[in-house]
Design goal:
heterodimer, A: 293 residues, alpha/beta, 28% helix, B: 266 residues, Rossmann fold, 10 strands, globular
Chain lengths: 293, 266
């Protein structure tokens, strides 16, 4: 069987219509989790089955796709999803944020500001922000319906009581347009401010949990906090060791067993383009020399 | 001793008026044709044997079960309203501001994975408190009022004894200053000395805050100590009601006489 034996972007047209209807409903009610009939995808749950279905439903032959995993274009998850759509949809791909029309992401928002021509698709493991406090789905649905969100603050209260500050560092709950409390997928809270008033359309797909939700462009998103413990977008207090960036989210890389470590941008495209522009960090060499080696 | 505390002066209408409340489970009767008035500051005891419909009645009043017939009229801040006709959002708002529900098993009323402070603070946060320092101060204050040491504020309820868990549940319920408290066997499952302390505490809090309460129990000692008025239920129907001491000292109905005479005397 050849790759062309598949319909464009793997899913059949009726499935894509069904997903598009869910997406439209999600866009109409920002932050509301729309149930959809999630399909089995040729990848395990937890690898982005929800994101892949949303991407498949949004793709057109003219699209240019970028896939990132924890900010990186070159990890297994990102590479295999990119290949999947290259084979089944025959679309162009890119690693440059600015050139992409559709970006599927796992756990990061690109450093470079997005535009109105772009769609950002998130892979979501657990769409329900109240899940670990209230295990009953019937009850959490009722809480969303009746806007009873006191419980979300109990989680933040527990953080402060135990750690002295809000220790939740990722999947930090947000309130959308003053209505729905939403799990922004496990992005670091450093990225939370980028959710708000973004010119790009943001779509969230949870395959196993069969939910889709959305933030239309320029939606107001507020991270929950206490008056005396305000929200803080935190990152490692270092500069990138390769490109010297002081304002990007960093990964910590342990380099030997004697405690040496380096900090590098988690957004590989951001780091590479900065190095190409001549920025160098503590351990970095200009990009041209590296290529020559 | 007929009234343990004077009724508030402004009490010219009942806080809760129940009319012909009926709940059927299929062809069986849960409770039938129950009517009573509860006045502000009054404590009403409901006693009866197992299966007599007292818990069904309490669940219907508190909105956990939907009765088949009848009215439950509560004196809200905006005037008397039939609770059963309210939208669910409104009823749940009432349930977390003006009402409180103390379960028999504290595990049903507490979040076992959340610290004592978080448990008490949840109701405050549910009605809009967003200042950590204030929430914590009020939680500490309430732990003190139910005789739980302030240094236990960051312990989980699973580390507490049964009596402490029950006291924590009471603190969690009373922190928002409700006007009406429903209690389902609040002392059930506790040993006698802990029961006595808990009753003492409850009596103090009810008086101090001027609470109205409806207490379901099969323990006549509990109602003797706490309740102003008493309702005796059998097979889903109210067979006798009146002032607690009157009913207990001079029971009229055959079943009440049986109930009173079967209390063990030490």
């Amino acid at each position: 069987m050849t790759d062309r034996a598949y319909n464009f972007a793997y899913l059949d047209e009726q499935t894509k219509r069904m997903i598009r209807r869910a997406i439209l409903k999600g866009v109409a009610v920002p932050g509301y989790q729309v149930p959809f009939a999630s399909r089995e995808m040729p990848m395990p749950y937890g690898w982005g089955t929800g994101g892949v279905q949303v991407t498949a439903a949004c793709l057109t032959p003219e699209d240019r796709l970028k896939v990132i995993d924890q900010g990186a274009d070159d990890t297994t998850n990102a590479v295999s999803i990119r290949k999947f759509f290259q084979r089944t949809a025959d679309i162009a791909t890119t690693e440059a944020t600015s050139e992409a029309t559709l970006i599927q992401t796992r756990h990061r928002i690109p450093e470079q500001a997005l535009t109105e021509d772009q769609i950002l698709v998130y892979q979501v493991p657990i769409p329900e922000p109240l899940r670990f406090l209230e295990p009953r789905e019937t009850e959490t649905r009722k809480m969303h319906e009746l806007e009873e969100y006191g419980l979300m603050h109990v989680k933040l209260y527990e953080d402060i009581a135990r750690h002295g500050h809000i220790a939740t560092a990722y999947a930090y709950p947000v309130k959308v347009e003053g209505r729905y409390v939403m799990d922004p997928s496990p992005i670091p809270k450093f990225d939370n401010p980028k959710l708000s008033d973004s010119p790009a359309l943001q779509l969230f797909g949870a395959g196993r949990e069969q939910r889709i939700y959305a933030l239309p462009p320029y939606t107001h998103v507020v991270s929950l906090d206490f008056e005396d413990h305000p929200f803080e977008a935190s990152k490692a207090p270092h500069d990138c060791d390769l490109c010297g960036a002081s304002d990007s989210y960093l990964d910590e890389v342990i380099t030997d067993d004697r405690g040496s470590r380096m900090y590098v941008c988690s957004d590989t495209d951001h780091c590479r383009s900065r190095r190409a522009a001549g920025f160098t960090g503590r351990l970095g060499t200009p990009l041209a020399t590296e290529a020559a080696e | 001793m007929t009234l343990m505390h004077p009724l508030p002066v402004a009490a010219d209408s009942p806080l809760l008026a129940v009319r012909d409340l009926t709940k059927r489970y299929g062809s069986r009767i849960g409770c039938a044709d129950v009517s009573f008035d509860l006045w502000p500051g009054e404590v009403l005891g409901i006693v009866g044997e197992s299966g007599s419909g007292k818990s069904t009645l309490l669940s219907c009043l508190a909105g956990h079960l939907r009765p088949d017939e009848g009215e439950v009229i509560f004196a809200t801040a905006q005037g008397p309203r039939d609770v059963l006709q309210m939208a669910e959002a409104e009823r749940r708002r009432l349930a977390r501001s003006d009402w409180a529900f103390v379960h028999q098993n504290p595990r049903d009323g507490l979040r076992m994975g959340v610290t004592a402070g978080g448990n008490v603070g949840e109701r405050l946060m549910a009605v809009g408190a967003r200042h950590y320092g204030d929430i914590r101060a009020r939680a500490t204050d309430w732990l003190g009022r139910v005789e739980i040491a302030a240094e236990r504020i960051d312990d989980r309820p699973s580390a507490f004894s049964g009596g402490m868990q029950q006291r924590l549940q009471i603190a969690r319920n009373l922190v928002t200053g409700p006007r009406l408290v429903f209690m389902d066997e609040p002392t059930g499952g506790l040993d006698v000395s802990v029961q006595a302390r808990l009753l003492d505490l409850l009596r103090g809090l009810v008086r101090e805050m001027g609470l109205s309460a409806i207490i379901v129990t099969h323990d006549l000692a509990v109602v003797r100590l706490l309740a102003d008025r008493l309702m005796v239920m059998k097979s889903g129907r109210v067979v006798e009601q009146g002032l607690t001491d009157q009913v207990l000292d001079d029971p009229q109905h055959a079943y009440t006489q049986l109930l009173v005479s079967s209390v063990l005397q030490v």
